[in-house]
Design a protein that fits this description.
The chain is α+β, with helices and mostly antiparallel strands. The chain is built from twelve helices and 15 strands. The chain has a five-stranded mixed beta sheet with strand order 11-12-13-14-15, with helices on one face. Strands 1-9-10-8 form a four-stranded mixed beta sheet, with helices on both faces. The radius of gyration is 22 Å and the shape is globular. It comes from Microbacterium radiodurans. This is Winged helix-turn-helix domain-containing protein.
Length: 360
């Protein structure tokens, strides 16, 4: 198939639209989840938790924080898996992939050494679930290493996370930030009738839908050979484009300002940010304070199809004020751009129910 030839402006427009960051906003949580495929969950709430910030940056004033747990726990239109919320339409393919997951040798050895612990945990959930991790006894015979520092000495959270990836247990809700677990067959229903190749093709297509345009076989976007080949003006990359995203690619529907949480999916493919947007982004959360340039948790500022700056701001501990430490301009701003950015920051403070300090 002949590759679609795209200008850089068309490429950026496809990506921005695929991420629901153009002027026309989506209507609700489910619409966002269906298009993006995954909404990252992270407790780092410098301004707001990532899952809430991602939804607000798309929906705007039509979004209220209570809509997300309602969609997950009451309406069952979304589900949680491996640190993200996903639409139910992706569950069959994802479960088929879970079933075929291959473990690293060290992980498989740890699981085998703790076969009795695994059986105890599953039995407890079957009899008494849903449960919090704290409600499940740690009967591990062999502790796992903890080089990453992400786990405590309690082996229950580690076993739950592993069994979730294998499709044996599932998160069915939360109590605050704590996950409630149940056995997957009760939480998710019968296993899907999909083989691994069918599931992989479906998931590649969904990832390309969310990306709009991605490098062929990129490990960052993982779209494989989904979609159709494309060439982008000035780029040597081999791209894949979602053919659905080509409709109206030359229509100018208008842009807007978006303040993006550092864990926003728009930012995940760092090489694509550089290639398509000429934007290099480094999260400085884990950089020593003296070496930070833009701030601990600076939010990139997207204006139309250009990244024009970063917002260094935080919600103070009493949650009374959004405090702006700095607004970094990556390019010279027009007065209209400055007004639009400041208006978006004010809207963010209002959405948080907070005052605003440091903007003027």
């Amino acid at each position: 198939m002949h590759a679609h030839e795209l200008t850089r402006e068309q490429a950026r427009r496809i990506i921005v639209r695929a991420q629901l960051l153009e002027a026309d906003r989506p209507g609700d949580v489910v619409e966002v989840a269906e298009q993006l495929g995954a909404i990252k969950i992270d407790p780092t709430a410098v301004i707001a938790p990532s899952e809430q910030a991602i939804l607000w940056s798309r929906i705007g004033w039509g979004y209220e924080p209570g809509q997300l747990p309602k969609a997950v726990e009451d309406d069952r239109q979304l589900f949680e898996y491996a640190g993200s919320f996903h639409p139910m339409s992706m569950l069959p393919a994802m479960r088929a992939r879970m079933r075929e997951r291959t473990l690293r040798e060290s992980t498989a050895a740890w699981l085998e050494a703790n076969a009795a612990f695994r059986a105890d945990l599953l039995s407890r959930l079957r009899d008494d679930g849903p449960l919090l991790a704290a409600d499940i006894p740690d009967t591990a015979a062999v502790p796992a290493g903890n080089d990453s520092g992400w786990y405590s000495d309690n082996q229950v959270p580690r076993m739950l996370d592993l069994l979730e990836r294998l499709g044996e247990v599932a998160v069915v809700g939360r109590v605050g930030r704590l996950r409630r677990w149940d056995v997957a067959d009760r939480a998710r229903g019968p296993e899907p009738d999909l083989d691994a190749d069918e599931a992989a093709a479906i998931l590649d297509d969904r990832r390309l839908q969310a990306a709009g345009l991605a490098r062929q076989k990129s490990s960052w976007s993982a779209v494989g050979m989904a979609g159709e080949p494309a060439a982008v003006e000035g780029s040597m990359w081999k791209w894949r484009v979602d053919p659905r995203a080509l409709d109206g690619v030359d229509d100018d529907r208008g842009g807007r300002v978006a303040l993006l949480n550092p864990y926003d999916g728009m930012l995940f493919d760092r090489p694509r940010l550089v290639e398509a947007f000429d934007f290099t982004y480094k999260l400085e959360q884990f950089v020593p304070k003296a070496q930070r340039v833009y701030g601990y948790f600076a939010h990139p500022i997207l204006c139309g199809d250009r990244f024009i700056g970063l917002l260094d701001a935080a919600l103070d501990k009493p949650k009374e004020n959004l405090v702006v430490a700095a607004i970094h301009e990556l390019v010279p701003w027009e007065s209209e751009e400055r007004e639009a950015v400041e208006a978006e920051i004010r809207d963010l403070a209002d959405w948080l129910g907070a005052g605003l300090r440091g903007l003027d």
